[in-house]
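User: Need the bound-state model for adenosine-5'-diphosphate:
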Amino acid sequence: MSNPIRLVIFGRQGAGKGTQCVRLVERFGVAHISTGDMLRAAVTAETELGLKAKAVMDAGNLVGDDIMNGIVRERLDEDDANTTGFVLDGFPRTIAQAEALTQILGTRALHGAVNLDVPLEEVTARMMARGRADDTPDAITRRLELYESETRPVLEWFAARDLLVTVDGLGTEAEITERLFAAIAARV
Ligand code: ADP
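Assistant: Bound-state model below.
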């Protein structure tokens, strides 16, 4: 069996990460670990976590680092994450989460952190159009603001560790997939 591939993917809300993650799973056989999907599942199942997270998510705010770090630690300890590797989507979103991730991974080094780069004006237009339940205009604005203030520094954190690869996220779906495959293949 091939060696596990460990990736983090970044992109503003509405950058098309979800779609491209499906392609990465097909191509590299990794597990797609999306903290947004995990939280939405918890909300639907009305678990204790879901009940706590719902209001925070509806407002477009960030769920607390301690909660998020715990969820991700548990998920990354599962078998598939260890055998096939993973593409981690939606985490880390703060420097504290990036530091926790380093600790959680221990000797399991990341191959790269991919930034799917789509300009702010473009993602704003796309998000206003897609109409997901948590996509109210206020929540959209708030999430994009938090991306700049909290997550932008995380990109710099990865760049300083020579892990950041920026991929142009404008183009057809297939073009972007090809760019992503090439960027990742160069690192694994
Ligand atoms: P988006 O559609 O904004 O890219 P996600 O699907 O990744 O968002 O996450 C949806 C919501 O879940 C976020 O707005 C936030 O409230 C919460 N969330 C997801 N991941 C994290 C995280 N790593 N830290 C804090 N909150 C998170």
